[in-house]
Design brief:
Strand order of the largest sheet: 5-6-7-9-8
Shape: elongated
Number of helices: 1
Distance between the termini: 57 Å
Helix content: under 10%
Strand content: 35-45%
Number of strands: 9
Radius of gyration: 16 Å
Structural class: mainly beta
Order of helices and strands: EHEEEEEEEE
Amino acid sequence: MSQPGTDSLAAPSAQAEDAGSTYLTYQSCRWCGTASFRKLLCPVCASSDLEPRRSTGEGVVIRSSVVHRYTRVARNESLVRFPEGFMFRCRVVGAAPHLVWVGARVRPVAESGLDAGELVVELCDTVRSYDWK
């Protein structure tokens, strides 16, 4: 059995498969109710009594940057805020790295990046296009 918080994406349930969506599993502290992601202790009260909960998985990009580290191909790394109250650094796919904007809605990609331990999300909205003249 795996430790709580080590699985970033859980397998879709029968209802979620019908909808074609995946969800995130996060922890909620039983003492203070703080939501966290991939933590062993509560970041507020340091309790180890964390229970797994299911997230909707849709988040909002609050910071976005293009990274060229360790590879020749540029990629996007963004800080994403989820509706349950936790934030996590994610890799955004589905658009060119420089086209991910602050305020974009994102959702998790099933079975991507789990081996590397990173959370991979894709854009829910279409990429904005501006007419540059």
